[in-house]
Every structure is written in structure tokens, then in C-alpha cells.
Write a structure and sequence with these properties.
4 copies of one chain form a homotetramer.
Chain A (H helix, E strand, L loop, with lengths): L4 H11 L24 E6 L4 E5 L5 E2 L4 H21 L13 H5 L11 H8 L7 H16 L8 H9 L2 H13 L7 H12 L2 E2 L1 H12 L14 H14 L5 H7 L4 E4 L3 E6 L3 E6 L10 H13 L14
Helix pairs in contact in A: 1-12, 2-4, 2-10, 4-7, 4-8, 5-8, 7-8, 10-11
EC number (chains A, B, C, D): 3.5.1.2
Protein name (chains A, B, C, D): Glutaminase
Enzyme class (chains A, B, C, D): hydrolase
């Protein structure tokens, strides 16, 4: 399958108008209303092509895409069973920052690792003596996977995250009160959570991440195996059912590709065995997903037959 | 890939003990405590093998597996856009018969077509002059797909469904009160819903259904195309995110196969491009899924590499 | 204390403008938009005065004011303990027709007898061979208390109640499904509930009812004792905490008088030891209470020192 | 009306056995399992009697009884309208430390000032340059009302409150996130909230507080008027509908007296125009109310005809 720059540019052009109905998350430094109609995409295939179109020089922060990385590290540290004793595997119909269900259903663990409460619980588990050590481990892994040693912390965004972190604090303290979070890990988990949200990346970095998931945890540029393939499949399955917040069901129907979105308007998608996709489009809808970016993913899926529920893909080889 | 009867019998033997922790849905005639440890499976591959093991002569009713059929007919009658104006595409963390979310989130349509409220809403749409005509259309389709003209209504179960239908009535009237269900369709939709739940089938019939979904809507035994492939992909995607009720997330992680369960302890699974699987195991857990049956599906997925998130499956052909 | 017609007319004039922000419940025959600004009041004191002002010739139906009557009969039939095993005593923050809490908190009895679910549960208890007999008992009691033998059923309203009864049906069937309502009493309870809602009254009748509650269950015009005073105190206490739906807290603060409102815009209030008040003002707010009527009650309470939390009232005699 | 020590001792003896089914809040220093069956009561009438029985030398902390004091100060500082723009007046069916409704109903203010979220919101309003100044104002008022200059802060309890304050922190940060609490007041409000919960008192002090409410804000021992009577009536009304958490409905029916409970097993009750009552009985039920203490209040109400819904009390003087 060949993907040309011209084709990608057509996709960008077709989808750009959908940004108009969105809004840009204002509290995060680096993005403002002038970015609402930005749209960029990078595709990296497992067989070595890299193709980009649109505003691919935009630098933005990982935000919720980081939830896949922290889960990966926790799975590596403790294994599937231990991690999923702390956090569930089920999609939720609530918003990503919801607190009600933690109380209403006397559910003393968050529904899944891709909502805020779940990601904070995961952050509280990661090995390391303090949040600085834990953060270094995560940052190093992101640098290796993206093959980009210049990936780094955005301190302005970190400050903003902390200043605007009331909802996340509320989630963390609620979990302390029910025993879902260890008392002495609360502030540390929040600090780590804010930091991994604040790592600067580009669509190229996201596409590399997607590739890594598509290639079962083996770095496509070095061939190095960083993570056990079973953990990677677990994460892709969760991206399918919960990666796009409470819009995941629609994305599974319309695109059929495991993907994880971030509040900056980013999407990192992994087409198993085929390619990684990195998208930025800061105009987001009420559910927190990039409007034009989501449209691009659905269009690519149709045009390139990437929908995993398509029979042809699964034909016996 | 060859699947032998011996292998399937091993799977049945390994998984049978898991039934012990379950319970049998008592209100449905034909199943009682004596069935708790029954376990049967039929696999039909797209290339023509049919293999069975365990109690495959058990006759049971479609129950919630029928939700895939009624959705199929509604999609054929009205198209995707119209159907999903009446019912959502999102997985829910609530139980299959939940009513709270219809009120709490002022969500005037059910979350998805595979929870009871959603299936009743779908049943209310299907073309036909009355519930008898509508039911005949569905029954005929099931007979064609299973290539089994003797598939028929179980009147005892229908009576039991109606006698024990208070929760479903409550859901239907609630939806009338918010306008999600047309006033003059309420009783008709309930009658149809109870009927399609009460169609007698075997694991062989479920495996045929699974095959049909795996083969993109083309009958694998006659080559006849009954339904547009796009609708079949939509249904498989919904089976992945919502087919196993509020345990769908775990099944996506552990099995990675689109599947739909029924309260009798049945599972119908469709491995795209490969096979259909029909399972019965009446010992169900609190979320309504067959304990031993679910275990079998997960084991098959591992042993036969059926997990859709596995890279190998997607290698370029 | 003397209450003059001139004073009451002033109150009506002052409060009338508040109706403008309300709306008239349209599905009930007999009331339409032309009634939005109607406002009428009758006060009957225990020492024999009857004073009226405004549109007191308006005939309307009991609606939720009837919830006090059915509770009274159930208390008489079975005693406090038995009744409150079926229905709670607690105020709720939900709307009067809410269903969510019946599920969310696995609360298998309605919060209190003055929300719809609770009143249906109470209606299901009342002694009698069928809904006609039960209804006759209630109608007779209303006639006795109001000393008005012409009080009767409004058949047009009854038809409308049944035609628009989907939410109440949903509540009743939900309660059947959890065992809160006996299976064979559901339709009968609904029929009775719709009927007692559909009894025609005037502000004069409501004031008589209020008097009866104010006078501890002794008819103020005949001296006949119809109900045990303890039951009357129980009902007044519930009127205080739950009589004005989820606006009861504010009414307790602002008026401090036990009162029960109806969706027609009626209010029946009972000032213990002093007087009964009947109000009609069809312009209601979102919580279901008469806007101008509520204002009148608060004003009367201030002007006439009727607030039960006032120290002076409780001075040793 | 005369209340003898003998009579009160009988009440204590009758009610003591009810403590057996309760439990003692363990995280608060000063109370442990040895206190489960303690029971003490002090009654102070407006005409000057002081009568006590049982363990009236027990020193315990104000806990939620303090919610009446902070509301009083806020009402004095800003008036009714301003205060109730920040916090509601409605009783809630949820537990006192619930967070779900703040999200579910997009209710950006707490239901009432007597649940934890509401009391924290009230604490955030009180005038003063910092929490120390604010606390001093409240402590001074308590000393004046109780005429007990030795009332003071229990530092051990304060430390325990802060150490175990996760749920309250969660509530406060949630309110910050929705704008219900000012960003720069969160930690200060929590600190103040924990402090006013940690003021040492006895049943005698609580009875004095009750007297003050019963006497419309005039100190019964000095005749000094501390607070506007209208505010006192507002607080008594809220005590009636919400003072005993989500058991307030039952208390209104069974006792009919405005009362406020604390998690230590204390109750402060105010019978308008008559008396104040202070109770301690550390064995509490699941709703947070003293089991034996609640029983005492109900029994006193019956024996002494204190139920406010009783007709006799309201007879024209």
C-alpha cells in the first residue's frame, strides 16, 4: 500500500472545515484560538514510509495520549493481573474527568486506565523512589520509542496543569478516601500525572508511538523490543473500547482502529501490522476529541481499508 | 488452520469447572439448575469445517443474541444514519437492563442497541404492519442465515418473557415518556422484543450466525448475500465494544473477538474472515455472561491466535 | 387573628405578576394558557372564618394534593409501621417523577409517599376489592372532609391522565421488577392513582382539607373525628419535608408551613391549630409548584406570623 | 412544664440498649469502642431549669453541629440572599459526604449547608483575613452562646481531621473545579472547616446552643441578642429538613423538633420557645446519627408533647 503526500494533503483539505465547530482548550499554554483550524498528520508505515501533510511543525503536549505510556510502564513493572486490580478494563459512558461513578456504584476502582481517575491510579503504581525518578523512566521510554532524544518537559504547561488541576486533585483525594489510592502516594501521583501530560511532541512523534503499538512493542526503526507484545495488545484493545473517551463506540464503528486522543486535539492511532498515525487538530468537540482529526482518521480508514472489522484484512495468509 | 474435535473437547474439559460459580437464569422455561454445568461449542470455519464438542444438543432461546438480528434488519430498513438517531453507539458501564442513565444524563436515547432499552427502541423501528409481520421477517432471516428452516418460536419461553417482563416494560414506557419511543409503538415493540428473544436455537445455529458476520453478510453455505457488508461491520464493531454487556472491555482485552452473549449462557462470536463460534454454558455470572463459555472463547483466542489486536493477523497479504 | 377579604385581595394583587414566568401543564383538560395568570385563595380558620379572594370559582383536579389523602387511608388501614415498610420518609433532591434513584441506590422502596413512585406504592396498598371500591372509599372521605357531597371524578382528566401516563407506568413496572410493588397490583394501582388525581375541587375544598389537617383530623364543621391525630401529624411532617417536591426545603425556610402542591398550580396548606389554606395559580415553575401561589403562601406566613419556627408561636400557654 | 432528673434518667435507661447496634467513629481521638454505650443528656429550658442525666461529663468535639454556627456567621456577614447563592436550601437523599450529585445534576452548588460540601462552601465565605481570624470569630461566638469561656480547640482531633480529610479535600477541589468555591479559598476553607469541627464541648454546651436557637438568637442567660431572629428561624428550618443527614425525614415525623447531629454521636436540638437539648451517645448508625441519642429525642418529644406538628402547641394564646 502506498500513501502519497498528495493523498494526505487531500484528506487534510477535506477535513479542515470540521474544526470550525470546535473549541481550543484554553488553559494550556502554547495553544490558543489562532490554532483552531490547524490540522496536521504524519503516517509512518511499518515498511518504512513516512508521509506528512498540513501543520506538522506544531509542537504540543502529550496530554491523555500519555495514558498509554504510563499504562505500558505499569504493566511492565507489575504485570496485567496486579495492574487491573487497581483499575478496571471497562469502557464508561461518563466524561473523562467524571467522579460520580466512583461513588454511585461503590466502585472503588476507576473504570479504565484511559479516564483521568484511572490514569492517576496507574501513575501511583509506577516504580521509582519519587516522582522525578518515575518521570525520568517515562520520558526515557518516550524518547526511545520516538527515536527522538530531544523530547522534553514543557514547564509552562506543567505549571498550567498544576494551576488548573482541581478536578484531578478531587479525583485523587476521592480515591484516597475509598482506599483506591494509597494515602502517601496522592500528591506524588498527581505531580507525575501532570508531568507526563506536559511532554512536548509533534505528529511525527505520535506516528512513531503508533508504529510501536502497531508493531507489537518492537521499535520499527531500531528493531529493539521494548515491551512484551501481550501488554501492547492489551493497550490496543483498551484504545479500541476507551481510547476516544465516551466517543470510543462511534470511533470503533466509523474507523475501527485503536486510537488515543489528547485534549490538545491530538490523536495517536495504531493500525496493527501496518502503520502508526499522528494527528493534531486543536479544535475539539464537547467529548474532548479533535473534530477535524477524528474525521481524517475515519476517512483514512475507509480509503485505505484499515477498519479491523473488515473481512478482507483477516483473510488467511 | 485445522480445528479438531479432540482439541475442542479439551477446551470444554478445561473450562467446565468455571460454571460452578455461576447461576442459571431461572425464569426461562427449559433451563434449570440441572443445566448449570452444561457446556457445548460448535465452530464453523469459512472454509467449510464444522466441529463440535460438549452438550451441543441443548436447545435454548436466542435471548440477547437476537439484538444483533433486529439491529441488522433495522439497518437494512432505514440505513445507519436513521437508526443511530434513535439509539447510540457508545458502550455503557451500567447493567444491561439499567434505566438510571436514561434519566440522569437527560440522554433521551439508549446508549447502544445491545442493552435492553436500545434493543426495544430498535424493535420499535422495524418495518411491518404489526408485530406478527415484523416477527416473521426476523424469523425468516434467522432461518436463512442458519440454513435451518425448523428454527421456530418457543411459546413457553414467550409466555415467561411476558410474565417476567416488568423491567422491560418499565424501560419502554420510560422511553415513551421522553419521546424516545413512539407512543403507538410501545406495546408492539415489547411484544416483538419478547418474541425474538424466544426463538429456539442450538450452538450450531449460533455458529452459523457467527459465520455470517465473519463473512461480511454472505451466507457461507449458499453464497447468497443477505445484508450489506457495511452494516455487518457496524454490528461487529458494536459487538466488540458492547456485545458482552458491561464486561465487554474485559472480553476485548482477553479474547479480542466480536461476540454477543445471551442470558441463557450463550455466546455467538464472529472472527472476521475466519469462523463463527456458537457456545452454550448456562452458568452465568452477575454481569449476565456464561462463565465457562467466556473462558472457552478466551482460550480459543489464545490457542488459535484469533485476537484481532495481534499484529500477525494484519500482515500485508 | 382576623383575616379580611381586603387583605387577601392585596396579597393576590401583589403576587399575581409572578405567574408570568411559569407555564401551564397542558395535558390536563380544563386548564390552558388562558389560565396562566389566574390566582385564587381561600382561607378557613379553625374558629370559623372563611375568606376568599381572586379566581376562587376555578374548578381543577386534586392531582398531587391527593397524595395526602391516599397516605391517610393507607395509614388508617395498616398503621404507620406497615406503610413505611413499603415507602420511605425521606425527602429527595430528585424531581417528583424521578426513576433513577430506584435503581442507583438499590433502594427498593420509593423515598417518600409524596413523589409519584411513592404515591403509586401507597395506592397499591389501600384496602378494597378492586380499584373502583378503593376509589369510592377515597372519594367518600374527600366528600366528608370537605363537607361537599358534589366532589366528583373528572372523566376527561382521567382519560388524559391515562393517555399521558407513560412515566407513571414506567415507575410502576420498575417497582414490580424489584418487588416494591406486587405483580398483581400494578395496573390496579395505576388506575386508582390516575383516578384520585382526577377528582374535581376548588380552593374552598382545599382550604377545608387544610383545616382538617390543621385540626388534627377532626372535621372543623361537624366535629367528627375521621382519622387518628397521630397519622395527621405524620402527614403534616412529610408535607413539611417533601410536600413541595424538591423545593420543599426552600418553602420550609420561607414559609415554615406544611403544604402540598399539585401540578395544576394548587397548594393545600395546614397551619397547625390555626387554619387551612387553599390556593390555585396554574402558572407553575420547573419544579412543579405554583409561582404566584407559592409567593402568596410565603407572604401570608410573614404577615400573619404563621412560620412554625417562630418562637412566639410556641410560648407557653 | 417541669422536667425532673429522675424522668431524664429513665429516658437514658430506656434508650441505652439501642447503642448496641451502632459503631463508634474511630478516627477521632478521644472516642473509642469503650464509649459505644455511653449516653448523656442535658436539657435547659428557656425559663431557667437545667437538668442532666447519664454520662454528661464526656467531652467531645462539635463536628457537624458546628455547621449551624458557621452558617449563622455567614448569614450575619452577608445576609440570606448572598449565602444561598453559594449553597442550596434543599434536603438531599444522599449521604452527608456525597460528591456524585455535584456532578450528576450539574448542580454547581451543594444542596444545603448541613452536608459536608455545603459546610465547606459556607466556611469559604466567612469574613476574616485568614483562617485563624475566621476561626477566632467562630470560637468567640460559641463561647458567648454557651457562656463558657473555656470552650477551646482540640488539637489532637484537628490533626486527625486533617490526616483523614481526603473526602473533604475531594469535595473542596471538586467545587473549585466547577467554580462553586473560589480557587484561593480552598485550602483556607478546609483548614477552617477542620478547626470548627474540632472544638471541644459537652452536652451542657450543646443544650445552651439549643436554647439560643429556641430563643430566637437571644442568649438565655445574659439576654444579649447575638443574631437576628430571622437568621435563627432559617437555621431551624434547615435543621428540620436536613439536620439529621439523610435521616431527617424520619426525625421530622418521629420527633418533629429541629435538631443537628454530629458524627461523634451528638445531637443539639432546639424546641422553639421552650428549651435546648444536648445529647451524646457515640454509637452511631450508618447514616451517621446516634442510635440511643435519636431514640431519646423521639421519646422526649412524645412524653413532653414537643412535636411541632401537634395542634395543641399552636393554639391561639
Amino acid at each position: 500500500m502506498e500513501i502519497t503526500r498528495e493523498y494526505l494533503q487531500t484528506v487534510v483539505n477535506k477535513c479542515k472545515p470540521f474544526s470550525a465547530n470546535g473549541s481550543v482548550k484554553q488553559y494550556i499554554p502554547g495553544l490558543d484560538n489562532s490554532n483552531q483550524n490547524d490540522l496536521g498528520i504524519t503516517v509512518i508505515t511499518l515498511d518504512g514510509q513516512t508521509v506528512s501533510a498540513g501543520e506538522t511543525d506544531l509542537v504540543f503536549t502529550l496530554q491523555s495520549v500519555s495514558k498509554t505510556i504510563s499504562l505500558m510502564v505499569a504493566l511492565q513493572d507489575f504485570g496485567k493481573e496486579a495492574v487491573f486490580q487497581k483499575v478496571g478494563m471497562e469502557p464508561t459512558d461518563d466524561f473523562f474527568n467524571s467522579i460520580a461513578n466512583l461513588e454511585t456504584y461503590q466502585q472503588h476502582k476507576p473504570y479504565n486506565p484511559f479516564i483521568n481517575s484511572g490514569a492517576i491510579a496507574v501513575a501511583s503504581m509506577i516504580n521509582g523512589n519519587n516522582y522525578l525518578e518515575r518521570f525520568e523512566r517515562i520520558l526515557e521510554l518516550v524518547r526511545k520509542i520516538t527515536n527522538n532524544p530531544s523530547v522534553s518537559l514543557n514547564k509552562d504547561v506543567l505549571e498550567a496543569e498544576k494551576r488548573n488541576g482541581a478536578r484531578n486533585r478531587s479525583l485523587a483525594y476521592y480515591m484516597e478516601s475509598t482506599g483506591a489510592l494509597d494515602k502517601d502516594r496522592v500528591e506524588d501521583a498527581l505531580e507525575l500525572y501532570f508531568r507526563i501530560n506536559s511532554i512536548n511532541v509533534t505528529t511525527h512523534d505520535l506516528a512513531k508511538l503508533g508504529c510501536f503499538f502497531a508493531n507489537e512493542g518492537v521499535s520499527p526503526h531500531t528493531g529493539e523490543k521494548h515491551i512484551d507484545g501481550r501488554h501492547i495488545r492489551t493497550i490496543k484493545a483498551l484504545m479500541m473500547t476507551s481510547g476516544m473517551y465516551n466517543e470510543s463506540g462511534e470511533f470503533t464503528v466509523e474507523a475501527g482502529i485503536p486510537a488515543k486522543s489528547g485534549i490538545c486535539g491530538s490523536i495517536m492511532a495504531a493500525v496493527p501490522g501496518k502503520m502508526g498515525i499522528g494527528i493534531i487538530g486543536p479544535g475539539i468537540n464537547k467529548k474532548g476529541n479533535s473534530l477535524a482529526g477524528g474525521k481524517m482518521l475515519k476517512l483514512l480508514s475507509q480509503d485505505l481499508q484499515l477498519n479491523m472489522f473488515h473481512k478482507e484484512i483477516h483473510k488467511d495468509r
